[in-house]
Amino acid sequence: MIATGNLAVLGAQWGDEGKGKVVDLLSPAFAVVARSQGGHNAGHTVVVDGDEFILHLIPSGILHPGVTCVIGNGVVVDPAALFAEIDQLHARGLDTAGRLLVSSRAHVILPYHRDIEAAAEDRLGAQRIGTTSRGIGPSYEDKAGRCGVRIGDLADARPGGRLAALIEANVAERNRTVAGPALDWRAVLEDAAGVWPRLSPLVADTSRYLHDTLEARRPVLFEGAQGTMLDIDHGTYPYVTSSNATIGGVCTGLGVGPRALDGVLGIVKAYTTRVGEGPFPTELDEPLAERLREWGREYGASTGRPRRCGWFDAVGVRYAVRVNGMTALAMTKLDVLDNLDELRICTGYRRGGRVLIDPPATIGELAACEPVYETMPGWAGRGRTAGVTDERDLPAAARAYLARLEALGGAPVAIISTGSDRGETIVRPDSPIGRWLAACVPAGEHTR
Ligand code: GDP
Ligand code: IMO
Ligand code: MG
After folding, report:
1. Residues 45-79: pLDDT tens digits?
2. 302 contacts: CB under 8 Å, gap ≥ 6
3. How many whole angstroms from 425 Cα to the centroid of ligand 1?
4. What is the widest separation between alpha-carbon atoms in the chain?
5. For ligand 2, is residue 320 a contact (CB within 6 Å)?
6. Which domains can be identified in the chain, with CATH numbers?
C-alpha cells in the first residue's frame, strides 16, 4: 500500500520521543525514507516481535525490503559508523544492497572532529554541553566554516589534491588547539581515502534522486533526528545539537522544496526526557525520576547514558507544533505512566509575576522559569494501557489525559503508542494520519 502524499516525522521534545518506532510503522506506505540531518548521535529504536534494532545513521525504514533509504546532504557521516551499522544489519539477515544511498554533498566526520569536541567539552567543565562525543558539532563547524570534507571529496586523495590539502590544514588546526600527541595528517588522509571503494557504490546526488521520486509520485517519508528543543536555532541554545532538527532542516538537508511536504507528524512522549546538560523546566527529582527511568527504560540508545525524566511540558510541545507547522502528533510511551496515581502537566512557565506561554530565548531566562502545573488523576489500579491496540480499551483516565495533552499541544493526536513493539500501537482512523493510511492505494495505482 502506498501513501498519497509525503510526510515529515520530527521530534517535538529533546529527542528520543520514539521517532524510530513510528517511522518503521509508517514505512510500508512509502517508497523512500530519507534522513535530513544529524549523524550517529541519533539512536532510533525499532522493535519487531521482541527483536530490537537501533539505527543511528541509516533511516528507520531499512527493515522493510521495499523501501529505499536516503542519507541526505544535511547529515554528517562517519564512514566507519555507517559501515558498522550496515554490517550489523547484514549479520541479522537484512540486506541494504541497492536500497541505501548517501549524498555526495554530506559532510564527513573525521577523527580530528572527535578530538576537538572532547577538548571543547573539557574546557567547558561544568558548562559542558554533554554531547554524544561523536564529532557531530565540529563537523558542522567545518561545514559552516567552509573547510569541511564532503563525501564526494573522498574520491580523489591524490597528493596535492583538494582532499589532501583540506585534511592537512584541518589536522594542523587540530594539533594547534588540542593538547596531547599530534595527529599525522597523512594517516588521516589514508584512512579517509580508504573508505572510498566501499562507500562509492552508495554515493549519489540524493536531491536529484528525491526529485525524480517525487516527480514519479512515489511517496517519501522524511525522517528527522533529535527534536525541536535540540534544534540549533529554536532549541535551548547552547545546549542543543549543531543542526536544524526542525522542519526547515528537511528542505535544506535533502534538497527538496517545501511543497514536497504534505504533512508534518510530531512525535511526543507522554512525559519528557532529556539526555545531556541544559535547562529542563519539568525535570523530576529522584526517586520519581528514577522510577520513570526504569519503567520507560530511559537510557540513551546511542550512548547508554541515563536520561533525565520529567513531566509533560505542554509549553514546549505547543512551541514545537507552531515552529514546525505540525499537522498531527504521535503520542508514545503512555504505558510508562501505568503505575502512577497522579500526573502533572506543565501548562505555562512562571517568571516573576507573569506566566509565559512560549519558551524564552535565553537559558538564563529559562532557568529562572517555574513550571505551572495542572494535576490529573492517573489510572494505576484502574486498568493498564500497556500493549493496548484498541483505543476503547484504554482506561478512562488515560483517555482524559490524552485528550488534555492534545488540547494543550494544539495538534490532533493521530497515533498512540502503548509499547515499544511495532504492533503495540493505536492509529486513530479519523485522524489525519489514520485517514491518510486508510486512503493508501495498492502500489502501482497511486495518484496524488
Ligand atoms: P527516537 O530517538 O525518537 O527514535 O527514540 P529512541 O529509540 O531513542 O527512544 C525511544 C525508546 O522508547 C526506545 O527504547 C523504544 O523502543 C521505546 N518506545 C517507543 N515507543 C514506546 C512506547 O509506546 N512504550 C514503551 N514502553 N517504549 C516505547
Ligand atoms: P535522537 O535522534 C537525544 C543531545 C546530546 C547533547 C546534545 C548535543 O535519537 O532523538 P551532539 O552529540 O549532537 O553534539 O550533542 O544533543 N542529543 C540527543 N539527545 N536524542 C538524540 O537523537 C540526540 N542527539 C543529540 O545528548 O545534549
Ligand atoms: Mg534516540
Report:
1. 999 999 999 999 999 999 999 999 999 999 999 99
2. 40, 41, 42, 43, 54, 56, 132, 134
3. 12
4. 72
5. no
6. 7-101+205-438 (3.40.440.10), 107-201 (1.10.300.10)
**Distance, CA of 181 to CA of 175 (rounded, Å):** 8
Q: Give the global pTM.
A: 0.97
Nearest atom in ligand 2 to 133's CA = 12
- Which residues are near ligand 1 (CB < 6 Å)? 11, 15-21, 43-45, 47, 296-297, 301, 332-333, 335-336, 417-420
As a whole number of angstroms, the distance between CA 58 and CA 81 comes to 10
User: What are the backbone dihedrals phi and psi of residue 174, each rounded to the nearest 5 degrees, phi first?
Assistant: -60, -45
70/444: higher pLDDT: 70
User: Does any ligand 2 atom lie closer than 6 A to the CB of residue 13?
Assistant: no
Kindly report, residue by residue over 31-42, the tens digit of the pLDDT. 999 999 999 999
User: What is d(CA 353, CA 400) in angstroms, rounded to the nearest whole number?
Assistant: 30
For residue 46, the ligand closest to its alpha carbon is: 1
pLDDT one-digit tens code per residue, 145-193:
999 999 999 999 999 999 999 999 999 999 999 999 999 999 999 999 9
Task: State in Å: Cα 44 to ligand 3 middle.
Answer: 5
pLDDT over 90 (residue 313):
yes
If you take atom 12 of ligand 1, which residue's CA is the nearest one? 18
The rounded Å distance from CA 131 to ligand 2 centre is 7
